[in-house]
Design goal:
Family: Belongs to the NAGSA dehydrogenase family. Type 1 subfamily.
Largest sheet: 7 strands, parallel
Distance between the termini: 48 Å
Pathway: Amino-acid biosynthesis; L-arginine biosynthesis; N(2)-acetyl-L-ornithine from L-glutamate: step 3/4
Keywords: Amino-acid biosynthesis, Arginine biosynthesis, Cytoplasm, NADP, Oxidoreductase
Subcellular location: Cytoplasm
Order of helices and strands: HEHEHEHEHEHEHEHEHEHEEHEEEH
CATH topology of the largest domain: Rossmann fold
Function: Catalyzes the NADPH-dependent reduction of N-acetyl-5-glutamyl phosphate to yield N-acetyl-L-glutamate 5-semialdehyde.
Strand content: 15-25%
Number of strands: 14
Number of domains: 2
Bound molecules: NADPH dihydro-nicotinamide-adenine-dinucleotide phosphate, N-acetyl-L-glutamyl 5-phosphate
CATH class of the largest domain: Alpha Beta
């Protein structure tokens, strides 16, 4: 009789790769769980919540069938400390408080904003509470980004608008073709960007059928994008869009020199992202759409030179819960654990 020994991949491959998720009952935490459940090298350790502690995971996330039988634990140091890496998806302020109590050698990826900004004054201008200090910034596609993340125990993942806007803007400024003191951004986000806690302005009757600007000229991602791209002056207008997921960020920049062409702008982006698995500069004539990135860790980019207005225009689309949240968290965790950076992540979205 032929006897075949079968090893389940997770039993063979997950040693040293146990990830706990603090704040797993939220939108971002739920998407982290979905990605980790399908990850070939990760075992899911503790999954914790706050008001939902003690409840079955599938009561909150009925789509996560593979987690049936699991229950949210309280968000405590004891519950999290056993893991090889802790992902924190908590509200601002809560993540710094929790991280400070975890063992000093614990690997952590924090999706909250608490550890993103180097400049304490910028933090205090946009957020409540004391500045907790800066960690390695979690955007692997920035120059030196993935090496720094791989060498770090503490990584501050990027804000959702900041991911899309920085990927569009950074090469334009780094190459010198755009002026860092003249950047204008208008970006639309789906409602899941605001989290799952009930808010009056997120009621269906308020959101459906309307585009609503908010935090105009005062959004907390402005200092973060300036820090990541070296933009000196940046006008940012966020718009709430009647869709669950997706961010479309349109960035316009004054060119440094006269005569810049669309082909030259395209070349700058193509060169910056030629080897990037998750950033795709679309063929000429195709423009990014949020729908094409949903469920993926991809960012779609396109650019043109508006010669009449004399501005470079770059548009970026992401899934705010993908590359804008859970996808980038898993990408950073892969780097920190020495795994293939792309493991467990999709470049393909779902359509229609
Ligand atoms: N949504 C997005 O697209 C993105 C979000 N982020 C950031 O990620 C973090 C999580 O966002 P999101 O998932 O949308 O938010 P949610 O509001 O959906 O989830 C928040 C999570 O934190 C828990 N929580 C709430 N209050 C406390 C508290 N006082 N102590 C401990 N735990 C608490 C909640 O538990 P319970 O439900 O059990 O009460 C829940 O698990 C935020 O910092 C957000 O800014 C960053 C990038 C993108
Ligand atoms: C639609 C919507 O409300 N989006 C949130 C994005 C929050 C986020 O993801 O970023 P932080 O982690 O930096 O808070 C906002 O604009 O504040």
């Amino acid at each position: 009789m032929l006897c075949i020994e079968i090893h389940k991949p997770e039993e063979v491959d997950s040693m040293g790769n146990r990830i706990a998720v603090a704040g797993a009952s939220g939108y971002a935490g739920g998407e982290v769980l979905r990605l980790l459940a399908g990850h070939p090298n990760i075992e899911i350790a503790a999954v914790t919540a706050h008001s939902k502690a003690g409840q079955p995971v599938t009561d909150t996330h009925p789509h996560l069938r593979s987690l049936a039988g699991r229950t949210f634990a309280e968000t405590t140091v004891d519950a999290l400390a056993e893991a090889d890496l802790v992902v924190i998806t908590l509200p601002h302020g809560q993540s710094a408080e929790l991280a400070a109590k975890l063992p000093a050698d614990a690997k952590i990826v924090d999706l909250g904003a608490d550890h993103r900004l180097v400049d304490a004054a910028a933090w205090e201008a946009y957020y409540d509470g004391p500045h907790a200090g800066a960690w390695t910034y979690g955007l692997p596609e920035l120059p030196g980004g993935r090496e720094a993340i791989a060498a770090s125990k503490r990584v501050a993942a990027t804000g959702c608008y900041a991911v899309a806007t920085t990927l569009a803007l950074a090469p334009i400024l780094a190459s010198g073709i755009g002026q860092p003191d003249d950047v204008v951004v208008v970006a639309a986000s789906g409602t899941s960007g605001a989290g799952s806690a009930a808010k009056p302005h997120l009621m269906a009757s308020e959101v459906a059928g309307s585009l609503s600007p908010y935090k105009v000229g005062a959004h907390q991602h402005v200092p973060e994008i300036k820090q990541a791209t070296r933009a000196r002056s940046l006008s940012f207008t966020p718009v709430l869009a009647p869709m669950p997921r997706g961010i479309l960020s349109t960035v316009t920049v004054k060119p440094a020199d006269a005569g810049l062409t669309t082909a030259e702008v395209h070349e700058v982006l193509a060169a910056a992202y030629a080897d990037e698995p998750f950033v795709h500069v679309l063929p000429n004539g195709s423009w990014p759409r949020t729908a094409d990135t949903l469920g993926s860790n991809s960012c779609h980019l396109q650019a043109t030179m508006d010669s009449d207005a004399d501005r470079i225009i770059v548009t970026a689309a992401i899934d705010n819960l993908g590359k804008g949240a859970a996808g980038q968290v898993v990408q950073c965790a892969n780097l920190m654990l020495g795994l293939d950076e792309t493991a467990g992540l999709n470049v393909d979205g779902v359509a229609p």
